[in-house]
Specification:
This protein is mainly alpha-helical. It is built from six helices and no strands.
């Protein structure tokens, strides 16, 4: 069980192995995801960073399923962890076995996955460090990050996905444009 008893601004930090593991994995996922977004797509570095992001996200979500401090039972955060876990697995399966337009679908799934981990981090910071009430700290900040992330994905995401195929043959570029909605 994760407990919170440290005084001061860190008073709600986890004091168990699972809590610290969850925190460390989340920080690695945030860093790995940022690296993936910043790297040229399809390169060996992108693939390595993507694998790091995948493993960190699996660790974040599995460890989240083991934390029951807030409600004492399976709750909304556990459901979100399952959805997040499903999205990163879907991103991996899609890029490997997705067929026609698979890379674009992979890009959009993984961009939304990163929005999810950023929303979780912002809501954690708002409730644990800024001491905002849960309704504002969790729901408000998560909704705000998801709206902003959605706007970025749907206004710039197709350009990001298309940039993957800058040097691709015309058949692939046309396929990417159709899948991205351009």
């Amino acid at each position: 069980m994760v407990t919170y008893s440290t005084p001061g601004p860190l008073r709600k930090m986890p004091e168990s192995f699972i809590g610290y593991f969850h925190l460390a994995a989340a920080l690695l996922a945030l860093l790995g995801g940022a690296m993936v977004l910043g790297l040229r797509k399809g390169t060996a570095a992108h693939i390595r960073a993507g694998r790091s992001y995948l493993f960190a996200m699996i660790a974040v979500n599995v460890s989240a399923l083991l934390i029951y401090r807030t409600t004492g039972s399976f709750g909304a955060f556990h459901m979100l962890a399952l959805i997040s876990l499903g999205s990163v697995i879907a991103g991996l399966v899609t890029v490997r076995y997705g067929g026609h337009g698979r890379v674009v679908r992979h890009a959009f799934i993984m961009m939304w996955s990163y929005v999810g981990i950023v929303a979780a981090a912002v809501s954690e910071a708002a409730t644990h460090f800024l001491h905002w009430p849960s309704s504002v700290g969790v729901i408000g900040t998560s909704a705000g990050v998801c709206v902003l992330g959605g706007l970025l994905i749907h206004t710039r995401g197709s350009r990001v996905a298309l940039s993957i195929f800058r040097d691709a043959d015309p058949h692939h570029s046309r396929d990417v444009s159709q899948a991205a909605g351009d």
